[in-house]
Amino acid sequence: MQRLRIAVCDDEQKHINVISGALKSIFSNYGAETDIRAFSDGRDLLNGLDAAGCDLVFLDINMPSIDGLELGRILKNRDAAPEIIYVSGREDLVYETFRTHPFGFVRKSKFMSDINDVVGQYLSQKSKKTEEEQLVIGGRDEKRIVKYKDIVYIEGKNIYQNLFLSSEAAPVEIRSTIDKLEKELKDKGFFRIHKGYLINLNYVKKLDGNNNVILTNGAAIPISRAKTAQFKDEFYAYLRRKKISAF
Q1: Residue 242 has pLDDT above 90, yes or no
Q2: Exposed site from 22, 161, 233, 243, fewest CB < 10 Å?
């Protein structure tokens, strides 16, 4: 698991110390590495996370300059929104926090039991999500794991297929059918533009005048004329989901 970037925001230093210390210990017990940053003011947190980003934020609710509910709303409206966990004594406001769709709510009155539970649930969900974002493939020699986001495109080749990855110069040969791969990847941002090619829409650069899809690695993949209109619809829908402007 990658190193987790965590922010803790509370206007009382004693609470910051307790929360940060508990998080470091609990995540370590799960074998997870963490980078924990502490903030005593909500505006400092917003400014501090602008450049670095964050995976998980622990927020108090009652704070002077900007309260945790407003902070949560702002954070959730960002493109790379972190998961939010409230740590508060204001149990009467737990339903108010639902508006920001937090991952959890830790009661300060039951801090240790709640914090252990919510960290365990977060890591379990993160592990499951990671498994869903990767492809276990078998080649001529051994199995390996490839992340969907690293696959630029797949070229059909009888019972073996070539996976072209963003991190490797040579393609990876796997034993599968392109029909099976299409079924597994079609809801993961991939589109089959030709009977022998499956591309990752994240790597599309343009559609040229010769009916080739040009990828960011320079590859020119022929698109079936019968699929051109569908490809354009799928690609622009993908851009809208990712909030990317069309070129």
Answers
A1: no
A2: 243
